[in-house]
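User: quick one - fold this with protoporphyrin IX containing FE bound?
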Amino acid sequence: MYDIAKLLHLISAIVWMGGMTFMLYALRPALLAQLDAQQRARLMEQVWQRFFAMVAVAVVVLFATGTHLYTATFRAAKAAGAAGGVPLGWNLMLVIGMLMILVFGHIYFAGFRKFRRAVAAAEWPVAGKAAGLIHKLVVVNFVLGWLAIVAVRLVR
Ligand code: HEM
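Assistant: Sure. Structure tokens for the protein plus protoporphyrin IX containing FE:
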């Protein structure tokens, strides 16, 4: 069970982190170079709709599997009478992971919903502002994601 949970945890992290890497370093610069603001907004609405649906699933799986990995090990350490429980890096992953989930909630409910409404109403300046917020928050989650991975691997 532990190995399956860890595999699902890894798959979800790869989907989320890989999607953000592609978006920030391949898709965004290419769109800025090739399309005008309205074309970009229409395309990104379609892209984000699909990507955020995937992230929503990844978030649920990451949280469910992450808490399973954490509590299973914590309980085993306690039962064995080991001092300390789990490594500090695991606690950092728990905290940073929850922060990332909150930031994603903000991206979706404060950013993407506003963006979609603005695109539907052809209010391009509003759409541009919402897209700017989404971009900033995706950068925040991208940095947090790598910090969480470094913490869980390197902090004992
Ligand atoms: C939401 C709360 C989260 C909790 C409670 C959690 C918990 C954990 C735990 C306990 C482990 C260690 C498992 C082990 O070494 O056997 C782990 C590993 C890992 N987590 Fe998380 N995690 C969370 C969120 C995230 C997020 C948001 C990401 C990245 C986007 C992530 C990426 C990873 C990766 C890549 C590993 C594997 C590291 C390795 O190979 O040892 N986790 N997580």
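One thing worth noting: The CA atoms of residues 9 and 61 lie 7 Å apart.
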